[in-house]
Amino acid sequence: MTRANLVRTARFLGRRMLGLLLVMWLVATLVFVILRLIPGDPVQIISGIDVVDPAVLDELRAELGLDEPLLVQYLRWLAKLATGDLGVSIRSQTPVTELIGKALPVTLELALFAFLIGLLISVPAGAAASRRKGKLTDALITSSALVGISLPSYVLALVAIYWFAVKWQLLPSGGYVSPTVDLLENLRMMILPAVTLGLITAGTLVRMLRRNLIDQLGEDYVRSARARGAGENLVFYGHVMRNALIPYVTIAGIEAGILLSGAVITESIFAIPGLGRLMVTNIYDRDYPVVQGAVFVVAGMYVLVNFLVDLLYSWLDPRVSLS
Fold it and tell me: What's the number of domains the chain is made of?
């Protein structure tokens, strides 16, 4: 790599890092403000509805630092955040990093399984639909993809639970067991939630890949390759598929980020103790530090995934310059 390329790459990385820091600051600010706009007093919730003595509530509020002005609370939150300190849970007095450390691997496992299912379905389905454009196979695949995109995740989850857990009793309806405790039971419990999220992801990716493949099949280089006598499979998989996968990677990366941050409903329905369920539970309890920390970590993963996708995109397509 030449010195000029190194300079351009360094500038690109520097700009992106500044952009990432700005996004994370905005996320931290928004979650802090929005949580305090939600009706409900965390001190009253922790103390119980029966506790109405203002002196008791004021004492607990002072102990938790909730009696200070919002600006002071906000600046303290940012200062701790800069050092990696996400605070302590108001309800359990457990460090937020500890709570997130237990929930994060569960969410990552679910997101990984769902993402793999989406990839395994979307690539062959998108290829089959594009090669049979306008035929019955194409209509069935695109219709199925549209259904997957349109149906909310909770609908798919409830349908899956009814058929596979209640009616046929093939799989558990929810819960979680660590793979280090029982790998087989872990896989059984993760099948339904992973398939629920994976089908939605596959729907988006199938439509994207099909459109890309059809566009590439109409390019001049395809006609030139066929005129030179290249086989149809060689043209499709050696040239068309490779070019169509470049924009597909971008959408796949965005979907991966969505899976990391969008499993809230699925985790709640299947009683999976991941980040999504952790956020929902503590929103009800108005446990500000836990919700703030969980949202910040999820946003950080989403931003990081998109950053890595940008780097991968520039590597896959030399026409895209890092500058």
Answer: 2
Domain that holds residue 134: 100-316
Residues 170 and 214 in one domain: yes
d(CA 277, CA 216): 42
d(Cα 84, Cα 250) in Å, to the nearest integer? 30
Say whether pLDDT at 149 is over 80: yes
> Do 207 and 245 sit in the same domain of this protein?
yes
Query: How many residues in total does the chain contain?
Result: 323
In DSSP terms, which residues pair with 103 in a beta bridge? none
pLDDT in tens, 89-112: 988 889 999 999 999 999 999 999
- HEC string of 220-242? HHHHHHHHCCCCHHHHHHHHHHH
Give the distance, in angstroms, between the CA of residue 8 and the centroid of all CA atoms in the same chain. Answer: 30
Residue 319's pLDDT band (boundaries 50, 70, 90)? low
pTM of the predicted protein model: 0.88
> Cβ(289)–Cβ(89) under 8 Å?
yes
Of the pLDDT bands very low, low, confident and very high (cuts 50, 70, 90), residue 44 is confident
State the Cα–Cα distance between residues 195 and 316, nearest whole angstrom: 29
Predicted confidence (pLDDT) per residue in 67-93, tens digit:
889 999 999 999 999 899 999 998 888
What does the block give as tokens for 12?
């690109």
Where does residue 28 rank: exposed (0-12), middle (13-18), buried (19+ CB within 10 A)? buried
* Contact assessment for residue 96 and residue 31, using Cβ atoms and an 8 Å cutoff: no
Amino acid found at 305: V
Which tokens belong to 133? 């454009």
